[in-house]
DNA sequence: AAGGAAATCAGTAATTTACTGATAACAGAA
DNA sequence: TTCTGTTATCAGTAAATTACTGATTTCCTT
């Protein structure tokens, strides 16, 4: 019986490692790497041109972070399963990534066979977490995905609000943001007020915290 | 004419990537990966048992960091050339590593051919830096390791200034920072002014950018 | 002893934010 | 179709924050 290979797109800003990873995956009889991208924006461009079964994504990439990238992929309605492969063992990253729409999460410390398992699992449409304490997390995550709105108010934000949030977190003043976005200071000010309301903040620093947590502050290229 | 292969030991705590890297290197006719280690201590153990021409070392590893590892290798008198392969583009890391005794420094963002070049160069006993502006660095490093200051303005900052920078980048106001650090707003204001001077900024957003770039904004746990 | 950072604070002018409204467009509910 | 809620947009004024210009003390180095 003929079974077609799992088509995989890789996204990682570490070129050498991505090349190695490609070799590793192509060595397996049932995998095939069909595309590579070095940051979130390039992933999106690539997805416009070609589809694949699985996207293996690093979270820390320049320009557009992995998390933002996941959200954008979802909002554009691309039909691709996302497997996060990253160095961050932090629970928060796992949560954020899964909430944003990832199907699997594997740390780079994992051995190759674990990654293979993860790919095959995710390919079937099933969740995969690489962690020891993963089960807890999965349960938490799955048994009560109801209070989604409160959990992730991010989905409540309008496009403009998100935009303003990013600039604010990077330390721009209302005035500066207004100039960049061609808006009156007053308008930007309103967005800020809304952000505070929606995200339940009383201080600007809490907004920054929120932005950090949600991967809205990737380091930009020089 | 027969030429023996360059024997390489890999050290990286990211197992998947190390496996990929091994494949990549073994694919080259003149390289041969003869050992792997997942942290500094294991590198040292391995070196007691086997020698090799080159050690490709990640800087961020658990237990014993890459830098410590380099120092220890040198102090034990092992005869192996060290090539650092890491994600850190920061000049300081380069310097530290080279001072500690590394012969080459390549960032993971580099493409495979660059890594190959680096290996071959280092194998000849020559220095290799992967940077565009590397040559400057080499010269600085070797001719006058004295004027550390201008190179990295971060080292110019006083403890207080760094502290204030972190809070500022996280979106706290002068007033808030003053409260946390038990200082007058005025004092904090002065630090801010100094920061701007030292880091050559005219806007707060540039300070935030600087902080981001230098990893001063880690995501905190919940 | 002189020179030079570092840490600390003040006063006032100039900006920026906070807060309170407001209007127009549009989508969905009733 | 009318009502309601959401988004996008802007204004005015009071309150708060920052920018700028000094200044003092301590400590370290030469």
Based on the model shown, name its key terms.
Rossmann fold, Arc Repressor Mutant, subunit A, six-stranded parallel sheet, DNA-binding, alpha/beta, 6 strands, 222 residues, homodimer
Task: Explain what you see.
The structure is a homodimer of 222-residue chains. Chain A is built from 11 helices and 6 strands. In chain A, strands 2-1-3-4-5-6 form a 6-stranded parallel sheet, with helices on both faces. Chain A has 222 residues and is an alpha/beta fold. Chain A has 2 domains: 6-143, 3-Layer(aba) Sandwich (Rossmann fold), CATH 3.40.50; 149-213, Arc Repressor Mutant, subunit A (Orthogonal Bundle). Helices cover 50% and strands 13% of the residues of chain A. Chain A is elongated and about 65 Å long. Mean pLDDT of chain A is 87; it is low at 145-150. The interface between A and B is large, with 45 and 43 residues. Chain A binds a DNA duplex (30 and 30 nucleotides) through residues 158-161, 173-175, 183-187, 189-194.
